[in-house]
């Protein structure tokens, strides 16, 4: 299995898209199984010559010779996704920043995302399937991504929201004192119920789940910067967990492992952008 990661070259798209990655597999490769973990981003995956089945938190991707194109949207998963590939694969995944995908859509995220961790029928535009199929047939990955950028720029509508950007920044930016969800709601002059409703509509997660994932992803970044065996205490507090018990509890929910177990198994690449665990590797 080969993966190439690309950052958007278009300056405007950089405000909305974190990165693209291209995943390819050859027909004679052994089946691959890995775990991927909750993210604050909206992930759109496009696969050609594939049959994708999503059952709970398990996704299987099998080769098909019928020239099928499948597009999926992953925003709702709060536990690890087990991904299984068999046969050849040809896939591009687009990682949209929080609220980034909303800038291109006619409806909120909740309109496109069902209650499953992966919605496998994401077709936001009339010409989407035909254009994605054309792009996926391009041989060179650099040219594929260039065409992908051109297409998404053509769909850009822009997005504004009276309080979600500020609420997200309050969770992402380091502060001397972390604000509670209730405090963030009061700061923006809304009820906590309204904040939760808009998070679920436009981001696909509750504020509590979003914050839990932010802490987890901050822990991954910190571990990547200071890759020592004995620095879990530092990671706990830098990532704004209350204590190690809090960190262990959240890690078990989001990864299925304790932090110590998880970091021993973690395979990270592209400066921590791709973070997977291969269960069969022990």
Structure description:
The structure is a single chain. The chain is an alpha+beta fold. It folds into 2 domains: 2-154, Sandwich (Jelly Rolls), CATH 2.60.120; 164-256, Homeodomain-like (Arc Repressor Mutant, subunit A, Orthogonal Bundle). Helices cover 35% and strands 23% of the residues. The chain is built from 10 helices and 11 strands. It has helices at residues 109-112, 128-136, 141-154, 164-172, 181-187, 192-202, 207-225, 232-238, 244-255, 259-265; strands spanning 2-6, 17-25, 32-36, 42-48, 50-55, 58-63, 69-74, 81-86, 89-96, 266-269, 274-277. The strands form 2 sheets. It has a 6-stranded mixed sheet with strand order 5-6-8-3-11-10. Strands 1-2-9-4-7 form a 5-stranded antiparallel sheet. A hairpin with a 2-residue loop joins strand 5 (50-55) and strand 6. Helix 2 (128-136) packs antiparallel against helix 3 and helix 7 (207-225) crosses helix 8 (232-238). The chain is globular and about 55 Å long. The two termini are 19 Å apart. The model has no long low-confidence stretch (mean pLDDT 92).
Q: Could you give the order of strands across the largest sheet?
A: 5-6-8-3-11-10
Along the chain, the helix and strand elements come as EEEEEEEEEHHHHHHHHHHEE
- For the termini, the CA-CA separation is 19 Å
User: What is the overall silhouette?
Assistant: globular
CATH topology name of the largest domain? Jelly Rolls
Overall mean pLDDT: 92
Strand content: 15-25%
Question: How large is the count of helical segments?
Answer: 10
User: What structural class results from the helix and strand content?
Assistant: alpha+beta
- Radius of gyration, taken over Cα atoms and rounded to an integer in Å: 19 Å
Determine and state the CATH class of the largest domain.
Mainly Beta
Q: What is the number of strand segments?
A: 11
Unreliable stretches covering 5 or more consecutive residues:
none
**Count of all domains:** 2
Sheet with most strands: 6 strands, mixed
The helix fraction, in percent, is: 25-40%
Which CATH architecture of the largest domain would you pick?
Answer: Sandwich
């Amino acid at each position: 299995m080969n993966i190439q990661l690309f950052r958007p070259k278009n300056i405007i798209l950089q405000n909305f898209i974190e990165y693209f990655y291209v995943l390819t597999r050859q027909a004679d490769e052994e089946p691959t199984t890995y775990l991927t973990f909750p993210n604050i981003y909206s992930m759109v995956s496009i696969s050609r010559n594939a049959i994708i089945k999503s059952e709970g938190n398990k996704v299987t991707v099998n080769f098909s010779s019928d020239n099928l194109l499948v597009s999926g949207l992953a925003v709702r998963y709060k536990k690890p996704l087990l991904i299984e590939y068999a046969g050849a694969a040809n896939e591009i995944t687009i990682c949209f920043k929080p609220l980034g995908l909303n800038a291109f859509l006619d409806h909120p995220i909740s309109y496109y995302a069902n209650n499953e961790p992966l919605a496998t029928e994401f077709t936001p535009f009339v010409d989407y399937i035909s254009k994605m199929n054309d792009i996926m047939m391009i041989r060179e990955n650099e040219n594929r991504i260039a065409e992908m950028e051109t297409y998404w720029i053509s769909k850009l509508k822009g997005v504004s929201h009276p309080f979600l950007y500020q609420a997200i920044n309050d969770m992402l930016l380091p502060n001397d004192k972390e604000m509670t969800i209730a405090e963030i709601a009061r700061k923006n002059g809304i009820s906590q119920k309204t904040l939760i409703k808009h998070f679920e509509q436009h981001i696909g997660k509750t504020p509590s789940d979003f914050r839990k994932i932010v802490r987890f992803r901050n822990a991954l970044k910190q571990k990547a910067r200071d890759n020592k065996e004995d620095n879990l205490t530092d990671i706990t507090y830098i990532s704004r967990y209350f204590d190690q018990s809090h960190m262990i509890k959240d890690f078990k929910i989001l990864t299925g492992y304790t932090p110590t177990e998880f970091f021993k198994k973690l395979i990270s690449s592209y400066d921590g952008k791709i973070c997977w665990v291969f269960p069969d590797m022990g």
